[in-house]
Amino acid sequence: RVKDLVIPPAWTDVWVCPFPNGHVQALGTDDAGRRQYLYHPQWRARRDRLKHDHVLDVGRRLPRARDRVRADLQLDGLPRERVLALAFALLDVAYLRIGNEAYARDNGSYGLSTLRRKHAKVVDLVGGPGEPSTGASGLAAAGASDEEAVRQAIQLRFPAKSGKRAEITIDDPDLVAVMTALVERTGRPGRLLVWSESEDGTEGPWHKVSSADVGTYIREVLGEEATPKDFRTWHATVLAARGLAAEGEPPRSQAARRKIVSGVVRAVSEELGNTPAVCRASYIDPRVIDQWERGATIGRPRTLEGAERKVLKLLSA
C-alpha cells in the first residue's frame, strides 16, 4: 500500500496513515521545507466537486458584483474603494495571483497585492475600427472602446510565481485611468496599489493595499465565501469551455479526444501562468471536459458574459 501511494522520494519526515480509508493518506516535507499532503482519491474528488460548485455560485454573482465595481471605479481621486475596485477588476480580467509579502521578499516573485510601480508602464496602443479592445485574456473587456486609433494602456511586466515572467496589457479605459494615476503619483511607497485619505484623494499619506484588504472587498462584493483564487478557477473553466467548443464535435477516437483536451488545457495554462498539470488538476472544472466528450458545449458566444452564462447553464443541468 505504501508503494501504491507513490510518495515523492525527496520528501522527509514522512507520515503514512494506518487506515486505507483515511482522507489524508500521507504527509511529508518537500525539499523546499514545505509540508505536503497526499489525499485519498475519493476525498479529493468530493472536495474538488464542492470547490467547483462554490465557484459556479461565484460565477452567478459576478455580473452584479461587476456593476458595483464599475461604480467604484468612477470615484474621484484614489480613495480606498476605488483602488480596491481596481484590484477586483485586475483579478477578473488578468487572472493575477493575489501575492503575499513572503513570496516577494524571499523569492522575488510578485502578485497583485505586492506589485511595484516599476512593474507598470503607461503605453500607447494602435488600433483601428473593428479591432476590439481586449483585456489580458484576449476576451472583450467590458467598457472598452475601439473608436480611437491610438489609445492608452498599461503594460505590466513582473517576475511571477516559479520564476515565470508575466507580461500583461490592460487597456480597459476605466482600469487604465486608475492605474495611470497610481503609476504617475509622487511620493513613497513604491507599491503600485495604494490609496489616499486626502480630501481629493490625490495626495498622501499613502496606505498600502494588502492581500487581506482585497479579500475583504471581494467578500463584501461577491459574498462571504468568495476568495481571490476563485477568479482564476472560474476563468480557467470558462476558457476551457470556449476552447473545447471551438474544436467542434469530439472525435470518436479516444486518443484524438485526449490530444484535443491536452491542447486546450495547455492553452488555458498559458493564460493562467501555470503548468498544464496544475491547471487541469486544480482549476478547470472537469465537468466541462466530460460534457464536451458527450457532445455538449457552450457553442461560440461572442462575449465573455455570454460565455459565462452558457457555462453556468451547461454545468447546472
What can you tell me about this protein's structure?
With about 325 residues, the protein is of the alpha+beta class. The protein has helices at about 1-5, 40-75, 80-95, 100-105, 175-185, 210-220, 230-245, 255-270, 275-280, 285-295, 305-315, and strands at about 10-15, 25-30, 35-40, 120-125, 150-160, 165-170, 195, 205-210. Helix 2 packs across helix 3 and helix 3 packs across helix 6. It is globular. The two termini are about 40 Å apart.
Task: Name some characteristics of this structure.
3-stranded antiparallel β-sheet; 317 residues; single chain; 3 domains; globular; Viral Topoisomerase I; alpha+beta; Topoisomerase I, Chain A, domain 3; 14% strand; Topoisomerase I, Chain A, domain 4
Topology of helices and strands:
Layout: H1 2-5, E1 12-16, E2 24-29, E3 35-39, H2 41-73, H3 80-94, H4 101-107, E4 120-126, E5 150-159, E6 165-170, H5 173-184, E7 194-196, E8 206-208, H6 211-222, H7 229-246, H8 254-272, H9 276-282, H10 286-293, H11 304-316
Antiparallel strand pairs: 1-2, 2-3, 4-5, 5-6, 7-8
What share of residues are in beta strands? 5-15%
Overall geometry comes to: globular
Assembly of the depicted chains: single chain
Order of helices and strands: HEEEHHHEEEHEEHHHHHH
Mean pLDDT, nearest integer?
A: 87
- Rg, Cα atoms, Å: 21 Å
Superfamily (CATH H level) name of the largest domain: Topoisomerase I, Chain A, domain 3
Instruction: Give a count of the beta strands, DSSP E runs of length 2 or more.
Output: 8
In total, the number of domains comes to 3
Helix content: 40-55%
